[in-house]
Specification:
The chain is of the alpha/beta class. Helix content is about 50%, strand content about 20%. It has a single domain, classed as Nucleotidyltransferase, domain 5 (2-Layer Sandwich), CATH 3.30.420.10. Strand 3 and strand 4 form a beta hairpin. The longest helix has about 40 residues.
C-alpha cells in the first residue's frame, strides 16, 4: 500500500474491485497511480453478516474517498456467475450507494477488457496483466516477484482494481486529447 501527494484534481478516480473477503482499491490521477491496496474486510470475526461486511467495505471506501477526493468511481463489473452471489451483489450495491451519496460519477468496466487492453499481443491472463502493470508502475514489482501463491491470490483484487482504473484513465485521456484537438480546430483561424 503506497501513497503520494494529496493535491486536488479534476481527473482523480477511485477504482475498486469488490469482493466478499477483500476489496482491491486504486486511486489514479492522469495515469499516475497515487494509492493502491487490498483491504481485508474482517472475514474471520465472529458474527459477520453480509450486511456488516457490506458496511465495512463502504466504510473503507468512504475513508479513501475522504482522503483522496476523487471525482469518479470505477467498479470492476461483476461477471454473470458472480451476480448469483448475494453477498457480492450486496457489497457492490453498498459501494455504489456510497459513491452516489458522495456525488461521484459511477462507471463499471470489465476486468477482461482491462486485461486485453494491457496485454494486446498475448493471451490476457491475470498473471500477464500483473507483470505488465509492474512494468508500467515499478512500485508494484514487489507484489509480482518472489511471492507465494497465497500472496498472489490476496493481491489479485488490488491488481484488478489497478487494471480497471488504468483502462478508465486511458479512455479518459483519449477523450481529453480529442476534446483538446477539437477545441484547437474550432478556434484556429482558417484561411
Amino acid at each position: 500500500m503506497q501513497t503520494k501527494s494529496k493535491r486536488i484534481s479534476e481527473n482523480r478516480i477511485l477504482a475498486i474491485c469488490p469482493g466478499t473477503r477483500e476489496i482491491g482499491i486504486a486511486v489514479f490521477e492522469d495515469m499516475d497511480l497515487l494509492y493502491y491496496g487490498t483491504k481485508d474486510l474482517g472475514r474471520f470475526r465472529q458474527g459477520n453478516t453480509p450486511h456488516s461486511l457490506a458496511r465495512e467495505a463502504a466504510r473503507r471506501v468512504e475513508d479513501v474517498i475522504h482522503k483522496y477526493g476523487p471525482q469518479s468511481l470505477v467498479l470492476k463489473q461483476l461477471r454473470p456467475l458472480q451476480c448469483l452471489n448475494s453477498r457480492l451483489v450486496q457489497m457492490t450495491g453498498q459501494i455504489k450507494a456510497t459513491g452516489e451519496q458522495r456525488k461521484l460519477l459511477l462507471h463499471e468496466r470489465e476486468a477482461i477488457t482491462a486485461r486485453a487492453c494491457l496485454c494486446p499481443y498475448e493471451r490476457p491472463t491475470r498473471r500477464r496483466t500483473t507483470i505488465r502493470l509492474a512494468h508500467l508502475y515499478p512500485e508494484l514489482s514487489r507484489y509480482v516477484s518472489n511471492v507465494t501463491l497465497w500472496q498472489r491470490h490476496y493481491y489479485a483484487p488490488m491488481f484488478d482494481a489497478i487494471a480497471v482504473g488504468y483502462l478508465f484513465e486511458q479512455e479518459a485521456a483519449r477523450k481529453r486529447d480529442r476534446s483538446a484537438v477539437l477545441a484547437s480546430d474550432k478556434f484556429t483561424p482558417s484561411n
